[in-house]
Amino acid sequence: TYIIAEPCVDVMDKACVEECPVDCIYEGGRSLYIQPDECVDCGACEPVCPVEAIFYEDDVPDEWDPYLSANADFFDELGSPGGASKVGKTDFDPPFIKSLPPMNE
Ligand code: F3S
Ligand code: F3S
């Protein structure tokens, strides 16, 4: 799977959402998250993110390792809805992301 890391927090550009052929990029309160079971590793999202927040799971910079589990944890309650557009915006974020200081200043 691909994952979304810290540069997305409070930026949420959403260019990636338009590119994903399987609609597996879901919106939380402060970031977007890729559903790891739904992502087909097409990689289309990665080059379009203006802040370079998207990485293949094996290529995540060490400092952003926690985002691997954060992307998965986001779906603990949501599961695998099979499409982000029908879920829409949620106000949920994994705890450590929720507690980050404002990132867009
Ligand atoms: Fe975030 Fe980049 Fe997508 S800022 S919403 S990962 S285009
Ligand atoms: Fe979609 Fe990106 Fe995966 S475009 S299928 S989330 S690699």
TrEMBL record:
Q: Which cofactor does it need?
A: [4Fe-4S] cluster; [3Fe-4S] cluster
A molecular function (GO) held by this record is: metal ion binding
Tell me which residues make up the 4Fe-4S ferredoxin-type domain: 30-59
Known Gene3D superfamilies for this protein?
3.30.70.20
- Positions of the UniProt region annotated as Disordered: 84-105
Alphabetized UniProt keyword annotations: 3Fe-4S, 4Fe-4S, Electron transport, Iron, Iron-sulfur, Metal-binding, Repeat, Transport
Query: Entry's PROSITE patterns?
Result: 4FE4S_FER_1, 4FE4S_FER_2
| Any Pfam family hit | Fer4
- Does Iron show up as a keyword for this record? yes
Source superkingdom: Bacteria
Q: How is the cofactor bound?
A: Binds 1 [3Fe-4S] cluster.
* Task performed by this protein: Ferredoxins are iron-sulfur proteins that transfer electrons in a wide variety of metabolic reactions.
- Name of the featured protein: Ferredoxin
Task: Please report the organism this UniProt entry assigns to the protein.
Answer: Gordonia oryzae
Lineage, top ranks = Bacteria, Bacillati, Actinomycetota, Actinomycetes, Mycobacteriales
